[in-house]
Design brief:
Elements: E1 3-5, E2 26-28, H1 32-54, H2 61-78, H3 85-101, H4 105-118, H5 123-131, H6 138-145, H7 148-160, H8 164-175, H9 183-205, H10 215-223, H11 230-233, H12 240-249, H13 271-286, H14 292-298, H15 317-325, H16 345-352
Antiparallel strand pairs: 1-2
């Protein structure tokens, strides 16, 4: 029987063809209908697997029942006569993965052994072997086969090890393909990896128990919020001094209502500095005139600042009034802002989470 094999083309250029598992499945040219059924079953498997990995490699009662139903469907498919060995290996490996998700490791091992006797280079078999601890070099296979599902598996391997930065990057290699079927099943896992990656980097730089923080720490917290600084970083990873230089050059530390004293990465953050940074982010993100308040008030005769301790001539007048009116920051007692009061990491984190 003449066979052809369809694997994922280079991940960054795999934008053509059907948005299905044909990029990772071995297909018999004489049995297209059978291959389509296998793809349907594999779609169900990856959906379950996303939930399984997100929940710490455990299934809920309902998901466990779904895994059992999927296993029965795979068994039914395995009863088909004259089955191609490549397809049979794929189905047996998928059945083994269902067993493993149901905490039936001995049954999963039996499926693995039988699948390997049919065809030993199937991607689903490689995944099952990796999860059973039988192979440890999934990266080698991923590079050799240029496979999306193996890239996902390598991402999950790093996720399990707590290497969230690497995991996030590998997920994104697959998710950049708009036709990939793996985005929806594993999006929540990727998001968790991203969040945990940021927690690790922030915790290494910020002492949450301190009552103050530096400009560098403030920027590090901002950088941990997914997508918030993408306009400035273009999605690239910046840390430490390079991050400070980038954001400072972009003007995020500049006062918009006047000239303020210069800051450095070690400058202690006050409420006014925090408002300045947050207002610059907010106005850039929402295409708002950053000096709208000073323009409005200074055009009035005998105008008076609505904030008791922040004058119209304050270089941070717009930032303070803007963050208060947009409910990003608050007045301490309903009247005063206390612009020179130091700001803690926890306080800044609470405010930046309000940016829309």
């Amino acid at each position: 029987m003449k066979r052809f094999v369809i694997y994922a083309t280079a991940l960054l250029f795999a934008f053509t063809g059907c948005a299905s598992l044909q990029k990772d499945i071995l297909i018999s040219a004489e049995d297209t209908a059978n291959s389509e059924r296998v793809q349907e079953l594999e779609n169900q498997l990856v959906t379950l697997d996303g939930l399984y990995m997100l929940n710490g490699q455990k299934l809920s009662k309902d998901d466990n029942a779904q895994a059992e139903f999927l296993r029965m469907e795979i068994d039914r498919e395995l009863q088909q006569p004259h089955m191609d060995k490549v397809v049979e290996s794929r189905l047996l490996a998928m059945k083994g993965r269902c067993m493993l998700m149901q905490a039936k490791k001995s049954d999963a091992l039996k499926c693995c052994k039988t699948a390997k006797s049919k065809y030993e280079n199937d991607v689903q078999l490689l995944i099952l072997q990796r999860r059973l601890g039988l192979i440890t070099d999934i990266n080698t296979y991923r590079v050799k086969l240029d496979s999306e599902v193996l890239t996902i598996e390598e991402a999950l391997e790093h996720y399990e090890k707590g290497e969230y930065d690497i995991a996030s990057g590998l997920f994104d290699l697959v998710f950049v393909n708009p036709e990939t079927i793996y985005r929806e099943p594993y999006a929540a896992v990727r998001q968790k990896a991203w969040d945990l990656r940021n927690v690790d980097s922030v915790n290494a730089a910020v002492n949450w128990n301190e009552k103050s923080l530096t400009v560098m720490q403030m920027m590090t917290i901002a950088n941990s919020k997914q997508g918030l600084l993408d306009y400035y970083t273009a999605g690239k990873k910046y840390e430490g001094k390079k991050l400070y230089q980038l954001l400072s050059k972009a003007g995020l530390m500049n006062s918009v209502s006047g000239t303020s004293s210069e800051t450095s990465e070690k400058t202690e953050v006050t409420r006014a500095i925090s408002a300045r940074f947050l207002w610059n982010l907010y106005t850039a993100k929402n295409s708002i005139n950053p000096s709208k308040y000073s323009t409005k008030y200074k055009s009035r005769t005998n105008a008076k600042s609505p904030v008791a301790d922040v004058g119209l001539d304050s270089p941070d007048f717009d930032a303070i009034l803007g963050t208060v009116e947009n409910e990003i920051m608050t007045l301490s007692d309903g009247k005063n802002f206390e612009p020179n009061k130091v700001f803690s990491a926890a306080e800044f984190d609470s405010c930046i989470n309000k940016l829309k």
